[in-house]
Amino acid sequence: MRKFMILLAGMAVFAAAPLLAQEFHEGQHFQRIDGPDVASDHVEVVDAFGYPCPACRRFLPHFDAWIDRQPDYVKVEHMPIALQQGWDLFALAYYTASVMGIAEESHEAMFRAVHDERRQFRNFDDIAKFYSDYGVDKDSFINTSQSFAVDAAMRQNRNNVRSYGIRSTPSVIVQGKWLVSVGAFNSYDEMLEAVDYLVAREAEKLDLDEDDESTEESARQTDDEAVEEAAS
Fold first, then answer.
1. Closest to 157 (Cα-Cα) out of 61, 93, 232, 74
2. d(CA 175, CA 197)
3. Which residue from 98, 157, 158, 198 has the least number of CB within 10 angstroms?
4. What is the rounded distance in angstroms from the CA atom of residue 161 to the CA atom of residue 155?
5. 174: β partners
6. Residue 118 and residue 26: Cα distance in Å, rounded?
7. Is the pTM of this model over 0.85?
8. Ranges 55-64, 67-76, 110-119, 214-223: which has the least confidence
């Protein structure tokens, strides 16, 4: 029995080996792009999505789980993409919600409304009614969508989409340099492994170290404990 278990363990390691040894290559798994400059104190990861996109809805839980595993130096941004007719209204809605401070809390809910609940959003008025569930007045949401801040965000969005050369969603952009598209992979998890590879590579170039952050956090905790002990 013991020999059998050892054999099974060996087979499991052998089966996992291709996954552990997965290699990613420019031109096959990710493309070099000419995006805007990114600050050198973090690695930026941009989630290019569309609320009406079924693949983006399926990708969401995988990406959310991925975000939870990232160190502090990884900064995640969402970027709505208007690849098809009507998607521009949802991009406008996202930036309006962002200006009003409700984009993050309503992000998953909008996906659920479109794909799970099959709610009909025939125009921007319907979309504004959805966001009224998040403590904003419908008319105020519509007025904000016409503001300078939202217009500037939409203009920047269109410029970025052109610079990134995005042709499908979901896609992920790392550090404004690398475009990772879902079509190059067999699964969302494999796609995110490629993102991990690029994040690690960019972090190494910037000399960003998760262990350093942990050390700094431990030092802060030690200082806090010392202060509390002195006070007592």
1. 93
2. 12
3. 158
4. 10
5. 45, 178
6. 38
7. no
8. 214-223
